[in-house]
Amino acid sequence: MALSPLVLPDGSVVKSIKTNDQSTLEEIAAQSSLILVLATATPVGLNAVASVELRLQPTDAKIPFSQPWLDNAERKIVRFFPFTSRNSDSGNPPLRPYLCNLCVSEKCRGMGIGRTLCRIVESIASQHWGYNHIYLHVDPDNAAARTLYEKEGYKDVGKRWNVMWAGGSDRIGYYVKKLR
Predict the structure, then answer these.
(1) Whether 148 contacts 111, CB under 8 Å
(2) Cα–Cα distance for residue pair 86/36, rounded to 1 Å
(3) For 129-165, what is each residue's pLDDT tens digit?
(4) Do 56 and 5 contact (CB within 8 A), yes or no?
(5) Any bridge partners for residue 34, and if so which?
(6) Which of 6, 22, 62, 90 could form a disulfide with 161 if both were Cys (CB 3.0 to 4.6 A apart)?
(7) How far is 53 from 108, CA to CA, in rounded Å?
(8) In angstroms, rounded to a whole number, what is the distance separating the alpha carbons of residues 79 and 25?
(9) pLDDT at 8 over 70
(10) What is the pTM for the complete model shown?
(11) What is each CA distance from 144 to 5, 49, 66, 104, in whole angstroms?
């Protein structure tokens, strides 16, 4: 099965994104989500085994909401009140591939499914979208996830999204992996 590059809803193909227009970046990011689900067939339907999401996300270490408009609103607040965030970037951080929402059913853990899903989205980001790096967040208390990502070559960049209302998000690790 051949995978295509990032295609926007209007049919245009995105080979690289170079713009300083924040609204355009946020619109592209909001429309870039790719969700992969593995499931087994049952007599009454499908039983999800694992899933992962790949999306474009600004590289500002912000932990994304599931609703892009919330991310947009929070970034606007931080730009308006820059004193609320340590390590906040000035300007518009570039969009990069972001691996998120990786989950594997408890009964299927330890079978290499999580590692395989990581490698699939890395391949899409690198070979089909043309990016050199991929980012993710991981909770330091989730030893299994942290171990998986570190074994796969992800490195903690040390940057944190730490706005005063984010309640402990400064503990969440922000990782990057060089793809090529």
Answers:
(1) no
(2) 34
(3) 889 999 998 888 899 999 999 999 999 887 666 555 5
(4) no
(5) 54
(6) 62
(7) 18
(8) 15
(9) no
(10) 0.71
(11) 31, 17, 23, 11
The count of other CB atoms within 10 Å of the CB of residue 36 is 14
The per-residue DSSP string of the chain comes to -PPP-EE-TTS-EES------HHHHHHHHHT--EEEEEEEEETTEEEEEEEEEEEEEESS-PPPPSSHHHHHHHHHHHHH-GGGEETPPSS-PPEEEEEEEEEE-GGGTTSSHHHHHHHHHHHIIIIIT--SEEEEEE-TT-HHHHHHHHHTT-EE-----EETTSSSGGGSEEEEEE--
Q: Which of 173, 154, 166 is nearest to 115 (CA)?
A: 154
> pLDDT tens digit string along 10-61?
556 555 544 555 555 556 666 678 889 999 999 999 999 999 999 887 777 6
φ, ψ at 71 (rounded to 5°): -60, -45
pLDDT at 55: 86
Q: How confident is the model at residue 4 (pLDDT cuts 50, 70, 90)?
A: very low
Is residue 174 over pLDDT 70?
yes
